[in-house]
Write a structure and sequence with these properties.
Layout (H helix, E strand, L loop, with lengths): L11 E3 L16 E2 L5 E2 L4 H8 L5 H4 L29 H23 L8 E5 L2 E4 L2 E4 L5 E3 L4 E5 L1 H9 L9 H19 L2 H9 L4 H30 L6 H11 L2 H9 L12 H14 L14
Parallel strand pairs: 1-4, 4-8
Antiparallel strand pairs: 2-3, 5-6, 7-8
């Protein structure tokens, strides 16, 4: 993956020198809604959490997110500033470049359809920090908060990804990492399009299994939108190296609900899926990558998820 000529986003809020306490604990990347727990893709770190001895059941319970509200937990730290500044470390610079590439491609897509576009901010933190959706912790993994339109990311996530996945080191991991950021950006796109608030409203008052099915559609669509970004970026400047897409697909496969449930429980319970199976996550990322359109990512109208 080649990013040397990419600009760095101005929408980075680096709190890593301000945040206090807490190390990496394993978790998922996703989407907290309305002050609740995180929904969103069970991430690479879910599998890593299992490898580290962290109970993956804690990572698979995301189906409760929109069906109940969790109390806000105040972070034990001084209040972070809202100043934006460009990161100077390697991981921070990489995140800033991928964020900028998402900004540019999605701005073009929205302008082409005559829709209003607003870029999100991305908060880099260490350990824990505050968000409009409650306490953000490393254990949650990367996530998007629709209440403040910000993506939250502890960059230690990428270090764990490189250490725990065999054959994924340095540049070989970069597109997998870019896929994670693009997935969270996909949630922002869903928010701008009004999909997230509509789904949240629909999930109230329905059975948990039905709420889970809606949530799966949200997550698979975010995977597809990540593929749309990769398609448009590749058309712009052919940034991918051989093996990059395969690495991202391996990441998508590793974080499927079926695989994580099998590891955690020895059995698979489809009604409790909140993010999609390995096959579904791979297929929907591929769908977005091949067709490059938002319309091709309509998981809510698809005959087969």
């Amino acid at each position: 993956m080649r990013t040397d000529d990419w600009r760095t986003s101005d929408n980075i809020e680096d709190r890593r020198d301000e945040d206090g306490g807490g190390g990496y604990g394993g978790g998922g990347f996703g989407l907290p809604v309305g002050g609740g727990l995180g929904i969103g893709g069970l991430v690479v770190l879910g599998l890593i959490g299992w490898a580290l001895g962290i109970d993956p059941r804690l990572l698979i319970g995301g189906g409760e997110i929109l069906s109940r509200q969790a109390p806000y937990e105040s972070p034990i730290q001084r209040r972070p500033s809202t100043k934006t500044r460009e990161p100077t470390d390697v991981a921070g610079k990489f995140v800033g470049k991928v964020l900028a590439a998402n900004e540019d491609r999605w701005r073009e897509i929205f302008q082409q359809s005559g829709q209003r576009y607003q870029a999100p901010h991305l908060v880099l933190f260490r350990g824990r920090t505050s968000s409009a959706c409650g306490l953000a912790q490393s254990a949650m993994g990367p996530f998007y908060c629709p209440s403040d339109k910000k993506i939250y990311l502890d960059t230690s996530f990428f270090g764990e990804l490189e250490r725990r996945f065999h054959g994924c080191q340095g540049k070989a991991c970069q597109f997998s990492e870019a896929y994670v950021i693009a997935h969270e950006y996909g949630h922002h796109v869903q928010n701008l399009l009004g999909i997230l608030p509509k789904v949240q409203q629909m999930q109230h008052g329905v059975a948990k299994s039905e709420a889970n099915r809606m949530q799966v559609k949200v997550e698979l669509q975010a995977d597809c939108l990540a593929g749309v970004w990769a398609n448009r970026q590749q058309q712009k400047e052919a940034f991918l190296d051989p093996g990059d897409v395969d690495a991202a697909l391996q990441t998508a496969s590793a974080i499927g609900d079926d695989r994580l449930q099998r590891l955690a429980r020895g059995t698979v319970m489809p009604d409790s899926f909140t993010h999609g199976s390995s096959e579904q996550r791979v297929r929907w990322f591929n769908t977005g990558f091949k067709n490059g359109t938002i319309e091709g990512c309509n998981t809510f109208a698809a005959a087969k998820l």
